[in-house]
Amino acid sequence: MAALVVLLSLAVAAAAPARSSGVQHVTLIGDSVADAISGDQSSVAILRQGIALDLEVAPCRRVEGIGCPVDGERPPSVVDLVRSMGSKLGSNVVVAVGYNDFEDQYAGNIEDAIDALTAAGVKRIFWLTLRAARHPYVTMNADIAQAAARHPQVSVIDWNVYSRSHPSWFQTDGLHLLGSGAEAMATLIHKSLLTAGVAAQPPRIVTSALPAAHRGEAYRARLSAVGGVAPYQWSLLERAPAGIHLAPSGAVSGSPRAKAGRYTFNVQVRDALGTIVTRRLTLRIVA
Questions:
Q1: Are 129 and 161 in contact (CB under 8 A)?
Q2: What does the DSSP 8-state code read for residue 153?
Q3: Is 139 helix (H, G, I), strand (E, B) or coil?
Q4: Looking only at Cα atoms, what is the longest distance across the chain?
Q5: How crowded is residue 168: how many other Cβ atoms within 10 Å of its Cβ?
Q6: Rg of the chain's alpha carbons, rounded to an integer?
Q7: What single-letter DSSP state applies at residue 9?
Q8: Where are the domains of the chain?
Q9: Are 48 and 18 in contact (CB under 8 A)?
Q10: Edge-to-edge order in the sheet of strand 219-222
Q11: What fold does the segment set 204-286 form as a domain?
């Protein structure tokens, strides 16, 4: 019998590149609350999926004006940091600052920050609400909402509502984050970036079935994935049937030597950002 050669169509798609790395640049500017993200590897891993992440977080930061002292130093405000970084900022900026600001000045500070961000070439601004554990933050959250209503480039990420029913995420002051809270904040920001089309969708294996292979005959197929950032790298999590091999490119080839039957194994794909997904596939070998 002539050798049977089976080809699977290749369907590999990646997010449209916004920079040479294939992902959009996002800068997170935060105070001591958001600083918990930078100190938690899991939180950073959650947030950086599908973006080029720049973390600019510092305790005691204010939106505008001199920050409170920490170890003898005062961090630059959002406005000052934006002016100093200029074009080094990402085209997308997330602001999680306000707990050290003054209630009666916050609305004006937000306007000045938006002006500075716009002058620096920032296209999208995502502003986190404050957890309203104290009354001034209720008013300040209203200031955030009103600023977003005036400026179409500003989107509100409602951390206050998202965290309201989760006291276990916080330290005793109800504001600063424990590890679970840092991961929750990172997750919320990442979801918002995904919804806005800023973060690249994670890779997904679309191959759901392999064509049957004939024992002792040449076999070829190709695994497919979509999303994430190409190039992809494929691997097996356990041995395939004897005689069948998976190349890093996703090409499946060989001449099966295993006896007739159904064989199940897990395949894994890693995209250029290091995001890994797996899928269980079955290969049927016939005599």
A1: yes
A2: T
A3: helix
A4: 85
A5: 9
A6: 25
A7: P
A8: 24-195, 204-286
A9: no
A10: 219-222, 251-254, 244-246
A11: Immunoglobulin-like (2.60.40)
The residues that bridge with 25 in the sheet, in sequence order, are: 52
261-270 and 276-286 as β-strands: parallel, antiparallel, unpaired?
A: antiparallel
Report the DSSP pairing between strands 276-286 and 213-214: parallel
Closest listed residue to residue 159, CA positions, set 185, 183, 139? 185
The span from the CA of 276 to the CA of 281, in Å, is: 16
Tokens in use for 176?
A: 């600063």
Is there a cis peptide before residue 69, judged by omega within 30 degrees of 0?
Answer: no
Average pLDDT over residues 82-108: 96
Instruction: Record the tokens describing residue 7, joined without a space.
Output: 């080809």
Nearest Cα residue to 38 out of 20, 11, 15, 56 = 56
CA distance 238 to 246: 11
Specify whether domain 24-195 bears CATH 2.40.240.10.
Answer: no
User: From the CB of residue 72, how many other CB atoms can be counted at a distance below 10 Å?
Assistant: 5
Strand ordering across the sheet containing 233-236: 213-214, 276-286, 261-270, 233-236
Residues 6 or more apart from 216 whose CB is under 8 A from it?
255, 256, 257
The model carries a pTM of 0.76
User: pLDDT tens digit string along 139-193?
Assistant: 999 999 999 999 999 999 999 999 999 999 999 999 999 999 999 999 999 999 9
